[in-house]
Design goal:
7 strands; about 260 residues; alpha/beta; 5-stranded parallel sheet
């Protein structure tokens, strides 16, 4: 039996699908939020992290494969659509544990939007956000990431832990940052090589270009999706850390990595 997505795709050639493949802290949430403001577009966030459908998607992937999974994701999107919607899609994070699956899913889509951010700021920002809830802090002013890696599950006094985190200063291992950045570059190279072999529309855009000229960037995205490119609404939500004074060895990081991967402000 054909899925709702397959039937709609066959019935109307105007129906298109997309996938956003993005680094962490690359602006992918803002991008998808902005795209969802467009009346012709409907997108969702990472499918495997969906609170309702996540487990079901994993089961379909295991038992039926990528194509069936992709069709099911699109079926769920189409069931919620309005009559004006002609473009459906979702975003995935390229550092996800499901990386190979994400690439296979991308090859099912009509359009691939590759959103890249390979900078020191993005890595340090990820480090801060991902460790807010699990760091156990020692007494004193400094928590040295090179030495202390004591974790705990979601603490009951989470608000106190977050407050403590904000008042702490940390030293971050420079080789660890370099390894993550080089891994992002390697993944991007592999990803580009794989998707360029497929007959897909591909738009490769960086974080700096996206936010340096939102209007121009969104026009390119809307054009590749064949929707009204004059649309000018933007999401007001942006996750960002603009102050890195909590990083003790910021000057050392900037000296060793800044020229190649950007500076911490």
């Amino acid at each position: 039996m054909k899925s709702d997505y397959s039937k709609k795709k066959k019935k109307s050639k105007s129906v298109k699908t997309f996938i956003i493949m993005a680094n962490k802290r690359s602006g992918s949430t803002w991008l998808l939020d902005t795209m969802n403001l467009h009346p012709q577009i409907k997108g969702i966030y990472e499918p495997f992290h969906d609170k309702i459908w996540g487990n079901e998607y994993r089961r379909i992937l295991k038992n039926d494969g990528v194509t069936k999974l992709y069709n099911r994701i699109m079926d769920n999107l189409i069931s919620k659509n309005n009559p004006n919607t002609t473009v459906y899609g979702f975003k995935v994070i390229t550092e996800d544990a499901n990386d190979n699956t994400n690439i296979s899913l991308a090859l099912e889509a009509d359009c691939i939007i590759l959103l890249e951010r390979i900078t020191v700021e993005s890595i340090v920002s990820c480090f801060k956000s991902e460790n807010l809830h699990k760091w156990h802090f020692y007494d004193g002013e400094t928590c040295d990431f090179n030495k202390h890696k004591i974790y705990e599950k979601w603490p009951r006094n989470l608000s106190k832990k977050i407050k403590a985190f904000r008042n702490k200063k940390m030293k971050i291992n420079i080789q660890w940052i370099r390894r993550i950045l080089n891994d992002r570059k390697r993944r991007l190279t592999i990803l580009m090589a794989q998707i360029q072999k497929a007959n897909k529309k591909i738009l490769h855009i960086s974080y700096d270009k996206l936010f340096g000229n939102k209007r121009k960037s969104m026009k390119k995205i809307y054009r590749i999706l064949d929707v009204d490119s004059v649309f000018k609404q933007y999401s007001s939500e942006i996750k960002i850390h603009t102050n890195y004074n909590w990083v003790i060895n910021k000057d050392e990081i900037n000296e060793q990595l800044g020229e190649e991967f950007g500076y911490l402000s």
